[in-house]
Amino acid sequence: xxxxxxxxxxxxxxxxxxxxxxxxxxxxxxxxxxxxxxxxxxxxxxxxxxxxxxxxxxxxxxxxxxxxxxxxxxxxxxxxxxxxxxxxxxxxxxxxxxxxxxxxxxxxxxxxxxxxxxxxxxxxxxxxxxxxxxxxxxxxxxxxxxxxxxxxxxxxxxxxxxxxxxxxxxxxxxxxxxxxxxxxxxxxxxxxxxxxxxxxxxxxxxxxxxxxxxxxxxxxxxxxxxxxxxxxxxxxxxxxxxxxxxxxxxxxxxxxxxxxxxxxxxxxxxxxxxxxxxxxxxxxxxxxxxxxxxxxxxxxxxxxxxxxx
Amino acid sequence: xxxxxxxxxxxxxxxxxxxxxxxxxxxxxxxxxxxxxxxxxxxxxxxxxxxxxxxxxxxxxxxxxxxxxxxxxxxxxxxxxxxxxxxxxxxxxxxxxxxxxxxxxxxxxxxxxxxxxxxxxxxxxxxxxxxxxxxxxxxxxxxxxxxxxxxxxxxxxxxxxxxxxxxxxxxxxxxxxxxxxxxxxxxxxxxxxxxxxxxxxxxxxxxxxxxxxxxxxxxxxxxxx
Lengths: 309, 225
Prior knowledge:
The structure holds 2 protein chains of 2 kinds. By secondary structure, chain A is an all-alpha fold. Helix content of chain A is 76%, strand content 0%. Chain A has 11 helices and no strands. The longest helix of chain A has 30 residues, at 3-32. The two termini of chain A are 28 Å apart. By secondary structure, chain B is of the alpha/beta class. Chain B has a single domain (30-220), classed as Glycerol-3-phosphate (1)-acyltransferase (3-Layer(aba) Sandwich). Chain B has a 7-stranded mixed beta sheet, with helices on both faces. Chain B starts with 6 loop residues before the first helix and ends in a 5-residue tail after the last helix. The model of chain B has no long low-confidence stretch (mean pLDDT 90). The chains are: A mainly alpha, B alpha/beta. The A-B interface holds A 75-76, 78-80, 82-83, 87, 89, 92, 95-96, 99-100, 277-279 and B 28, 30, 164, 167, 170, 173, 175, 177-180.
């Protein structure tokens, strides 16, 4: 067993320990003060269990497992996004290509480690080719809105999400097999940052960032980002970086994630929905769950890339 | 008992599971039980019809115990055209096949429907009669729904709106698009004492159209009568 596998097992036991505590806490609360709040909390914890187990299984399978897991997450996210986007019958072929060709190819390129392809495929090739497929059907009504929304969905759900497994491709001589730990690092700092933002925002939050959109406050955001940075320092051994650099990376990823949540909330408000779907019990849809990771992943990927070269 | 274990029967069950799995993969259909609970009692689900995917979507979102007792009413000329369809329609979905063209004057579609109801089955029917290819929200309803309810007045008729299917598979397209689908079940209706055919059909059509998403109602200029 190499060091990477040891670290994965260590992280896994940590996550399971936290979940056991949260589950017992839920049971205790249900006994003392039963009600819908506790039930929501318990469904959320159950969904977390499912996510941790799926993520752990894919990590143990390795590169193929992680790539496949995020390909499925991207598929589910794109399905939620394009359900609410503007589209006409004339876009059918373009959308079919987006789902069945662009998405699998992008993750195939990631799995093969073809960096030159997976960094330009969606923003260049899909960007140019899918509008052609729509234009050939000849319906000009709201054309720009239709192609722009489709491309935005592909960037968010396919390009951005694919940068999570792409982190596995960042390897140097001294970090063989450790790319996978960067994924665990990213998801951990972003998700914990979100949780702490929520907690501190509720407790001490005064000034709202965008009062019309979300209850997020500057105080909560600052606390969340600061703690994400701190967690980054503590877990810097998962990364090839100096603790301070790891902390800075974690803080930037967390910050990007929080604004990602804000952006996707604005889209939900525009389309008049509270959640993207109902697929994850207690948490809404895949996009609700992944919004912060989506914004954090490409930025984290590029900063890591820059730092290492 | 032995008959239920035949290879053909098993193949039909397996195909049924594969189809629900495929429907879930494409559309992750969700049931929204607005006006009724998913209880195990005899019902007729009457639904809008824009695509061949409508019936499998309703079939998929029904809880398994209800699904086993629910039979879609479907056109014999469509489902008997090829050996594959003749397997999927009558055996996998357990369709009640009716002869739309009335080739055989003794073969009365209503008699078959009532016979299925008398055996205790729930039904899925599409009262517009055909797939709706127009810009309107719903076509006018055929008389069948009224005649059936008149003949079996104790059975609840549940309006069932299948959303999004015209985007998942527009007319003339072959490959279904993965988009989320919601199946909404409204409050049940029955023919009332002395209600005329036209009044009842208008009421049933309103009950169904009112379940459609607001945006679609606006686009199609839906006006409840």
